[in-house]
Amino acid sequence: MSAQQPHVSDLLRIHGFTALEPGPRLIVLGGVHGDETCGTAGIERTLAELDGGALQLLRGQLTLVPVANPLARRLMRREGERNLNRLFKPTPAGEAPADYEARITNLLCPLLERHDVLLDLHSFQSAGEAFAMIGPRDNAGTLEPFARAFEEGQLALHMGTPRVVEGWLEIYAAGLAQRAGGRPADEAALAFGWGTNEYMRSRGGYGVTLECGQHEDPAAPEVAHRAIHAALRLLGMVAPDPHAKPPATPSLLRLVSVTDRDDEDDQFVREWATFDPVAKGEPIGVRADGSVLAADRDGFIVFPNAQALPGAEWFYFAVESDRDLRRPALP
């Protein structure tokens, strides 16, 4: 596709709104994966409200990207030529973009850099409730140094989901090491784990990925739409809602492991949904050789994928976190 003339529907559509009063700069992405349409629906509805005057931007800048991966959307599949939410870094100077997604990334990266806050709207394949994903706690480490964890946690709290999940990049790195026989992943391999939020944090901003529900869930577009409004209110970019209630405290989970599907004959013992609880010792799946894969502790299944290809992530495992999003971390 990258060597052909672009189809008109493969062009990136970006909508920008700037208030007369200065304020935060928020960018909202939908359709990073082509078969995830709820974010697009939520953004299009918000666009109509802004254009029609039902919603007024009072301060700051708002950028809305209804379909961040137009090729994948036209094909109505997760990817165009590869996963846009991996290797989300600009192509090095002097090199040609390797594929369509690299060209899109080269457009989106400078756009994200001009903003303070990112809301990235997604959905998932298995059954399950909506949830928000956040990055690391404040740290000065080498994997993902960060200093805005409290602000990011506040944004996650206001998404209105019953759960928030932390720990993505750390577990991605652990998965790479696991596949390499315990050897730490090199920088190039880790870079493939970078998505939109990781890039946003690396540029001094912060971001939340909102998983609005299962792909076909009719409630998912409403989850996306509510989240956009909640983010705008939290940042003081639109008028407050006098009837809004304080957000309920969601449960917080921490990803602790990822398990790959080794063989196409590896099978789950039942149809799992994201956040299904699992007790220590409970069977989760059966390997092709007949060995039973059981939980090594109490926890929760996350992103089970019965159609995963051999060598790809089969499911993630999470446990309850001790993090408190309502309070800044102690120095």
Automatic annotation (TrEMBL):
<dbReference type="Pfam" id="PF24827">
    <property type="entry name" value="AstE_AspA_cat"/>
</dbReference>
<keyword id="KW-0862">Zinc</keyword>
<feature type="domain" description="Succinylglutamate desuccinylase/Aspartoacylase catalytic">
    <location>
        <begin position="22"/>
        <end position="126"/>
    </location>
</feature>
<dbReference type="InterPro" id="IPR055438">
    <property type="entry name" value="AstE_AspA_cat"/>
</dbReference>
<dbReference type="InterPro" id="IPR050178">
    <property type="entry name" value="AspA/AstE_fam"/>
</dbReference>
<keyword id="KW-0378">Hydrolase</keyword>
<keyword id="KW-0479">Metal-binding</keyword>
<protein>
    <submittedName>
        <fullName>Deacylase</fullName>
    </submittedName>
</protein>
